[in-house]
Amino acid sequence: MGRGGQREAEEEGVMATDFFWSYTDEPHASRRRQILSQYPQVKELFGPDPWAFLKITVVVLLQLWTATALHNAGWLKMLAIAYCFGSFLNHNLFLAIHELSHNLAFSTPVYNRWLGIFANLPIGVPMSVTFQKYHLEHHRFQGVDGIDMDIPSKVEAHLVTNVVKKAIWVLLQLFFYALRPVFLKPKPPGYWEFLNLFIQIALDVSMVYFCGWKSFAYLILSTFVGGGMHPMAGHFISEHYVFNPDQETYSYYGPLNLLTWSVGYHNEHHDFPRIPGSKLHKVKGIAPEYYEGLESYKSWSQVIYMYIMDRTVGPFSRMKRKPSKSE
User: How is this protein situated with respect to the membrane (predicted)?
Assistant: First the structure.
């Protein structure tokens, strides 16, 4: 189904049965060239965030301390704290890992990798090294069928067909996000994946041994609830799910950018992945005419609500393109 077919589905008030198919290149490379040609000073924003190490360290230590403090807490109390507090910390660390996948803490790539493994600790499940492999492909091959694992599989899209199923999918979207590449495009693990795994297991086992199962459960709960029906998880949907057939990537300009490494500036991020989140707002300030005409969001919670309740929107609401011969 092309864009015309998608529009027909929208007009009929039913969910589309195929993706949006684009027959042009992704929009970010061309916009990057245009902006740099007109505003070469944007290059001055390139490079690491000097405060990244400190920010990550504070969040990691705070979350691990919280986990130890809850070793005797009741399950209801633990769940409440995990949703209202721990989820924000762990999602912050997930997006710190996103930042580190672009080598935006240190100029030396291996230091970013080590810091990513450290940032991974409170998340409870090893993912930092593997995430980088797939995420860089998402940037290089945005929307390319069979390569960009950010896009839901056809199995997901055919199963998630109504409001109730979409709500369940949102609740479990972190599992789909994490497991989709394993089934569709598995990559053989290397030295760094095993290192990430062993260090994470060492932390998890130590947490259980010294503090008990509840401390470890708090970390896992913080990760799970923070990636599902949660305001910060709205960015998973807001970034590339197509609510406007003429736009592929969307930015969010709300207050949660302060807790999420400004990942909401997503058009700006894809245009300039070498600029740290702390400076992405400056791109919009330097070249406002390139972004002010694009649709954007001010609430991630509203995006989740729109996704679930709009009967014409679902996992098929993503832009895809055929791979070129070189891919």
Answer: Multi-pass membrane protein
